[in-house]
Fold this sequence. Notes:
The chain is mainly β and about 170 residues long. It is about 5% helix and about 55% strand. The protein has helices spanning about 15-20, 135; strands spanning about 5, 10-15, 25-30, 35-40, 70-85, 90-105, 110-120, 120-130, 140-150, 155-160, 165-174. Strands 1, 2, 3, 4, 5, 6, 7, 8, 9, 10 and 11 form an 11-stranded mixed β-sheet that branches. A hairpin with a 2-residue loop joins strand 9 (about 140-150) and strand 10 (about 155-160). The radius of gyration is 19 Å and the shape is globular.
Amino acid sequence: EAPVISAExxxxxxxxxxxxxxxxxxxxxxxxxxxxxxxRRADGQANWETGGTAAVQTANDGGTASTSDLTLANLSVQNxxxxxxxxxxxxxxxxxxxxxxxxxxxxxxPMTASVSFVANGQAxxxxxxxxxxxxxxxxxxxxxxxxxQIGANTATFAGIFDASGQxxxxxxxx
Length: 174
């Protein structure tokens, strides 16, 4: 059985000075040609499930970093591929040529991302802006905008959503 994820390369760059000051300042994350293969076998078992639970123990000395200390200068995924198979349902979907670019230069700035890919021979792309990612990750609301295109079809969203799934805003489809 194929591994769930493999890639030709991964590079990560962090600002060590910021890390010692308990801030997470990611300068760059680049994932080259990732290949994600998700398979649900006929017996219902999925290759991404481990079958167990892990206990996570953390120490809190009052000096841990939080999501408000997170910055991301540049995240990119180049030439990715995703395959999902559900053998009991006869589903086999492949998404190719996945390219992603995202950034959040400061903890207070919006996170912006763009993605493009080809699925079933159809090109698609989208840009997303999340106004307050640290607030969203902490369970609060955030403003957001989405512009998507699949072939000649477009969709936009502008509004507010939160981690619980509450969404309000304007949607347009053409």
